Amino acid sequence: MANIEHLQTVNVPASTVYEALTTAKGLSEIWTNELIVNDQIGCINEFQFGGKGLTKMRVDELVPNKKILWKCVDSDPEWIGTTISFDIEEKNGRTSIIFRQMNWEEVTPFFRSCNYNWAIFLYSLKLYCEEGEGLPYHKRKF
To answer: Do the beta carbons of residue 114 and residue 101 sit within 8 Å?
Structure first.
């Protein structure tokens, strides 16, 4: 099994990061504006990217301002069964986010592409939390 892992630090409280990652408003600014999101354990969040395929994430854990855990239940076959986690920790007004997408079957070209795109996701999160505007899929030019 392979995992994608990244660390991002933002200059805002953990509550701002948590809200950005659990609400339609935040995720539409960070990831994609084609979404249906509910911040309740057991709910299925849906994400689309320019009409290309549907990704469904089940919300498995929510610890306010500390942790978010999703399980991919429908998407590209390489994503199904992977787990996505955000571990959030605030110190002195700065918040660190450890991102993981775990349980990939193997390292493939798609794995490498997703690794890059998750880094862009975290950069978008930083922009949104610190400046009020992210870089979601529909605004990207690359």
So the answer is: yes
**DSSP 8-class letter at 21:** H
Residue with tokens 């659990």: 22
Model pTM? 0.96
Q: Supply the CATH number for residue 49's domain.
A: 3.30.530.20
Sign, Cα dihedral of 51, 57, 59, 65? negative
Domain that holds residue 57: 2-136
Tens digits of per-residue pLDDT, 88-103? 999 998 999 999 999 9
Residue 141 belongs to a domain: no
Counted domains in the chain: 1
Token couple for 102: 């775990």
